[in-house]
TrEMBL record:
This is Sugar kinase. Residues 4-297 form the Carbohydrate kinase PfkB domain. Keywords: Kinase, Transferase. The keyword Metal-binding does not apply. PANTHER family: 2-DEHYDRO-3-DEOXYGLUCONOKINASE, HEXOKINASE FAMILY MEMBER. Pfam families: PfkB (PF00294). It comes from Tianweitania aestuarii. SUPFAM superfamilies: Ribokinase-like. One of its GO terms (molecular function) is kinase activity.
Length: 309
């Protein structure tokens, strides 16, 4: 059985429930790398094991999160607990389908997820594909960032599929320069990079999706897929540049759109699809997701979605 490992911070998600009144909130679980693991699990065949790696606390919500993962066939073999900390929390507010967030993550146990070198070595050795994001790195101390990036590079050298979504969140970093430096360093260890053009244009100054793809290729990535919201997507593999033209849709809730695309795209690539075929699969999943509220929709609602286009 092949193993897909996603590394990062899982959080309690509070989303507004306008049908029940503006002061009523729904509780769920999400987080960028958890979302991608969720959609990868929904799209990958049964001969793939999907494992999530993080650190949780001993608060009332951490055991519920473990149960949530187990119920949905996402493994927690590489999840540890920290008694002095808790799971992070965020709340989503929506306006015309676009989201804004408020976070409570200062005491998140996930900030210590790279503190066990032996467990990191075990997890990377067991995995065929390894996924992490800029948020994963941003919440860690420098020692933890170095630990993940060095292992990502070694895994790529060993022939494993290494994947990185820069997922820029400047407020989590010490400075914009620090963010750019660490993200660029991580890309050198990633065979596949999955940036989002609007953020990249703002913080790296890219003038087009193609320029964004070329920059990440120069940083060391072999394959770059530049997500572009409602605009055309660029896929760069070696010297081949392809464009997937988008269709305009009005989202109910754009939360998790990029993460769900990642899950669909990666599941397709890991099972033999070409980059363009995988982009179609990822786009189909993302279209389903933005038609629902919250970051995660039921896996049963996704059956066949990636093959329907």
């Amino acid at each position: 059985m092949s193993l897909f490992l996603s590394i990062g911070e899982a959080m309690v998600e509070l989303s507004s429930a306008p049908d029940a009144g503006e002061d009523i909130w729904r509780l769920g679980f999400a987080g960028d790398t958890l979302n991608t693991a969720w959609y990868a699990r929904a799209c990958l065949p049964d001969d793939w094991d999907v494992q999530y790696m993080t650190r949780l606390g001993q608060d009332p919500f951490s055991p519920r999160l473990l149960d949530f993962l187990a119920t949905n066939s996402i493994g927690h073999r590489f999840i540890t607990t920290e008694a002095s900390r808790s799971v992070g929390l965020y709340a989503i507010q929506l306006e015309n389908g676009e989201r804004s967030f408020a976070y409570w993550r200062g005491q998140s146990a996930a900030r210590l997820l790279a503190e066990d070198p032996a467990l990191l070595d075990e997890a990377f050795a067991a995995s065929n594909a390894i996924y992490l994001s800029g948020i994963t790195l941003a919440i860690l101390p420098e020692k933890g960032r170095d630990a993940l990036i060095s292992r990502l590079s070694a895994a790529r050298t060993a022939g494993k599929t290494t994947i990185f979504d820069p997922n820029l969140r400047p407020k989590l970093w010490e400075s914009a320069d620090s963010m750019r430096d660490w993200l660029t360093r991580a890309a050198a260890g990633a065979a596949l990079v999955l940036p989002s053009f609007d953020d990249e244009a703002e913080w790296f100054g890219d003038t087009s999706p193609e320029a964004c793809a070329r920059r990440w290729q120069q940083a060391g990535a072999a394959e770059v897929v530049v997500k572009n919201g409602g605009g055309s997507m660029v896929i760069l593999q070696d010297d081949r540049l392809d464009t997937r033209h988008a269709e305009k849709v009005s989202p109910v809730d754009s939360t998790g759109a990029g993460d769900s695309f990642n899950g669909g795209y990666l599941a397709a690539r890991l099972t033999g699809s070409t980059p363009l075929e995988a982009a179609e699969a990822g786009h189909a999943i993302a279209l389903k997701v933005i038609g629902h509220r919250g970051a995660l929709i039921a896996m049963s609602d996704l059956k066949g979605a990636a093959r329907s286009r």
